[in-house]
Write a structure and sequence with these properties.
two-stranded antiparallel sheet, phosphate transport, Phos_transporter, Phosphate transporter, transport
Amino acid sequence: MTQQQGDPRHLETLDRDLDRFSNLERATSMVARPMVGTGVSLVFVVLAGLAALLFFGQASNTLIVVIAACLGAYMALNIGANDVANNMGPAVGANALSMGGAIAIAVIFESAGALIAGGDVVSTIAKGIIAPESMGTAEVFVWAMMAALLAAALWVNLATWVGAPVSTTHSVVGGVMGAGIAAAGFAAVSWGTMGAIAASWVISPVLGGGVAALFLALIKSRIIYRDDKIASARVWVPILVGIMAGTFAAYLALKGLKKILPIDMPTALIIGAIVGVLVWVVMIPVIRRQSEGLENRNKSLKVLFGIPLVVSAALLSFAHGANDVANAVGPLAAIVQASQSGDFTQAVSIPFWVMVIGAFGISFGLFLFGPKLIRMVGGQITKLNPMRAYCVALSAAITVIVASWLGLPVSSTHIAVGAVFGVGFFREWDAERRIKKARLAMPDRPKYAPEERRRRKLVRRSHFMTIIAAWVITVPAAAVLSAAIFFLITLVTG
């Protein structure tokens, strides 16, 4: 027996067995990971229902509110899994943040934005998509909002599973529209508002991509393509950081602090200008110290953009939590109000316990399911470095400010992903331009074959087509799903 144990063939067999066990262990962990996420999500949904039971009391329609709270929690989980990736993806893709660091920052700032500056009133439900009075009775209105909430959550869940970042706002809008049509006919829908939302499918990504490309062109022409890159960076990086600080100050003043102070556009722009100038002055000596001893190459420039990129990701998360939490809890708050008072035609106040469900749901969804979309947005559309990711973050803030000023309905998801595409397509155009310029200087230089030129594309066309298709069908898909759910509810409750 001792001789057999010392046999090299026996040791090889033992190694193979151990390899099999380690492979089995890895496979088991891969299978168990999604099960853990699903299990934690179910526990959170149940806790949301218990919270509704605790706060709503023992009224005759408490069960309806409990079910609605569970659906609101499910929607919040999906917003965290899908929507928050747009803020954190560029920073992770540029290696300015680790996945764990990005999730931690997003959880803190999303929750803070939702709880500190989250909107306390949803004016006409779902931004005036339907006329509530057309529903007839409070019961029909409640069933319509339940259908809209469930349909929007299911659609965002499907999009996350496929790997497509979609607008959760548009998902809710589609859900409300579909349920409204099913409950009260096509006349109940404000088609002018729907036309403006459809226009935003084009406006949002084009604006976001254009602004991001312009800033990347500025960085390339004024810093990257200069002989003394570090000297140029000392001049331009403080200016760029000042622009970023001023833009975010105006953005947060206008979009994130409505609950605390009523601020109009001119006031927000003045606040942004003051903050921008102050940050520019402060950053001049900071960047000078940071740049001491750096080599005159592109890799050194990444150091100077790292901290501004992390700060911008945190601020975007705060603003997102302040604004988009209403997508999860707006219909839930409407159901709570209609169930309590029977009034469903006035503006809807969001109770604090409902806001907590939205804030914690977004955080849990990001933590459990967010990494997939973060990786996709940050690294699978086009390759990002800190300079490119900085352009994406700055574009998101500037585009929202400009759109608010012009009164255009835009999607933060479409803006951020459009900015990533804008950066990638600008890189393609810039690379082609430089190749042509080099070919003019060196006519004998060999040309790339068509296959090689296609391989060198800097934006993945498959992701581009998948995302665009998901954007286009989000509203109609959520509407059809919501209408079907509404008919099913009325059939069951009949």
